[in-house]
Specification:
Elements (H helix, E strand, L loop, with lengths): L2 H6 L4 H5 L2 H10 L1 H16 L19 H22 L5 E2 L3 E3 L10 H11 L7 E2 L4 E2 L4 H11 L3 E5 L2 H13 L3 E5 L5 E3 L2 E2 H8 L2 E5 L7 H7 L4 E7 L15 H10 L3 E7 L17 H6 L4 E5 L10 E5 L1 H9 L1 H6 L3 H16 L2 H4 L1 H7 L2 H13 L3 H6 E9 L1 E3 L9 E9 L4 H9 L5 E2 L1 E3 L2 E5 L8 H9 L4
Parallel strand pairs: 1-17, 2-15, 6-9, 6-10, 10-11, 11-12
Antiparallel strand pairs: 3-4, 5-13, 7-8, 12-13, 14-16, 16-19, 18-19
Helix pairs in contact: 3-4, 4-5, 6-15, 7-15, 8-9
Bound molecules: pyridoxal-5'-phosphate.
Length: 473
Amino acid sequence: MTKTNARQNLPSVDALLRSTIVQDLIPKLGLPASTDLIRYVLEELRNGLSESNSPTNDGDVMALGREALYTEALKRIGNYSAAERLRGLRRVINATGVILHTNLGRAPLAKSVQRAMVEQAGGYCTLEYDLETGARGRRGKKAKELLAELTGAEAGVIVNNGAAAALLVLTVLTEGKEVVLSRGELVEIGGDFRIPDVMLSSGAELKEVGTTNRTKLADYEKAITPNTVMLMRVHPSNYRLVGFTAAPELKDLAELAHARGLWLYEDAGSGALIDLAPYGLTGEPLIRESIAAGADVVSFSGDKLMGGMQAGLIVGRADLIDRIRRHPLYRALRPDKTTLAAVEATLAIYRRGVELTEIPALAMLAADASTIKARAESLLARVTEDRKAELTIELTPGESAIGGGSAPTTHPPTCLIALKSSTLSAARLAAKLRQHDPPVIGRIVDDRVVLDLRTVAETEEIELLNALERLER
Ligand SMILES: *Cc1c(COP(=O)(O)O)cnc(C)c1O
């Protein structure tokens, strides 16, 4: 058959549009995108090309007859639309055991927080409206009040994330003047957040003092000039200095700052609202303690140890918070109604004193290894004998992690489900689990895929079990 004849065998755009596959696709992709996809596939076939992501095809597609070409076109349309779907934002099962997994969206939200967000998202709300007077009200008033109450600060303000909070505080309060900071705190948090760079963007002048491992109060004192406005403390978050180290207490820094007419600002990073030491988490600043120690302004993230929505929370002296709120940069960084609804609902959980059970990240942190082991055992008991014959599945002790750039030295003991296949490498096995719907994300340790139920909700266990059972042989 000549090429020209073969081209006449190609199905028409209309014929493909009428197919069940494309008819199912139209509500999801829309008619224009579905038509574009058909044209793309037809062009590929017309040029005798193999599917762009299929190495198996030899490119001899134009030797196919009319029927076979139609089938081939539909197959490609199906494949491309499935690949397209994988690129979108999807719910996944986090079986990595990393509680605040930044790449997987950090903190999962509490039920009451999800409800609050959905309720405000779908309609109008009192975002900046006072129901008593019928006039304009303060944006996110209740969330800010709860924030102040729970941290013991005079006032609070909320922006989009912790990085925005640091940029805003430095920009507004320094006005280009000097900020004194220890060389041991010139850190990079990850995702391109580097303290010296934020300082530069804010226009503040960075005055480094001390050394990487040791900085004394006298170092700060000597660095103060008439142009200094602020002392800054940054929580190193994702790394720890051990051994021959020294840093002044926050209280002493605050005393020095105030004696010299300066402000003390702490970027607390994760920042905990309650003491998490009983769960093995030490060395994270407690926001209430930072305020009590005399910090004038403290900022922290909403989706790290607080366990809520992505947000940047700023608390401190009322006059300083007021200046921050009036600055044009605040207007550019302020969050929307759903974020404010989430922050308000999260703080309300803390106020009710039920955070350890209702906030998923904290409940995961507090879960002990024996509870996780019992869950893993009952899941394993539900795996079919057929499956167990093909996959070696063992329970083994291991460690979970906090993630989100918090508490790098804290590794809660856990019980791992370790998988080994007789035919597939660990990498292939992990890839197959990611192809499941919903995708299951595990870790590879010692050539085995390990799954940690600490970060898997009980409601997801059945889906995880399905993923194991349906693993392609
Ligand atoms: C995580 C962190 C930030 C950035 O907060 P995001 O909410 O991720 O933007 C800033 N400073 C410190 C010390 C941090 O640990």
